[in-house]
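Technical annex B. To support the medicinal chemistry partners, we prepared a structural model of the target in complex with hypoxanthine, based solely on the information shown next.
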Amino acid sequence: MYSTEKDIIPQNNRYQEAAAYLAGRIQGSPLTAIILGSGLGVLADKIENATVVPYREIPHFAHATAIGHKGNMICGCLGGKQVLAMQGRFHYYEGYTMQELTFPVRVMKLLGIKNLLVSNAAGGINHSFKVGDLMIICDHINMMPNPLTGPNDAAFGPRFPDMTRAYDRELIRLMETIASAQGIPLKKGVYVGLTGPSYETPAEYAFYGRVGGDAIGMSTVPEVIVARHAGLRVFGMSVITNEGYHFADDFVNDAGDVIRAANEAAGRMTLLFSELIRKMDDTFPMGDCVEA
Ligand code: HPA
């Protein structure tokens, strides 16, 4: 259609090399991957029969440096299914390029992953959100550079990928059913992705609230864009770790408070994600657990 656009063959085989290395280290054929955000790495401890592969051992992988983030790929059993978890993600504010920080998503696609579950810590800008709330991400507003900028790698997806339903409606409905059965209240909303690393000014929090945002953070959107480009089904959840709508005279936004609030929500988040994986549609076949 866009005949002047040149889709390119992957300019190198870095994705394949990383995928081949991981395929040799993990068991089974996981169909679901989880990217664990700030303070939520503890979810990884619930993975049984786990094989842990540090990022530094994987060819071409970047190394996570952000506080609260370890750097491991973990393969094992969660919710009765074989999963692949990224314990620690890369952020644009750490100095990685968008291509470096989304590199693992394409590697996971090559490994046969069909579903991507993402979690993050976020500031609440919807005035009804409180610290500790969990928010299903229904949509996002991207305020970062787009990771698909540059020649399109047609081996993964189209030049102009659709983002109308970036977050899978079926998985959102399933999560709502699970949470209500567990008695865990959930919010739903729009996640605004910014580069950081500075937190927002009160005027910026108010601005992003007025243009349709409910929560704000420094991650997730790049991985989701690359995942949707490659046709993965995506589900995302934020833990609200601070409230960006009232500021006492002595208020200071503090990364330690953010990590603490994220850690406090980790139990609920782990339960919800495990149940989501357990109950995910059988018509979308999931890799059964295998012994390590
Ligand atoms: N802003 C941006 N990123 C964040 C916030 C915030 O208020 N809280 C946790 N991550």
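Notes passed to the chemistry partners:
The domain at 5-279 is CATH 3.40.50.1580 (Rossmann fold).
Residues 121-123, 196, 199-200, 216-218, 241-242, 244, 258 surround hypoxanthine (CB under 6 Å).
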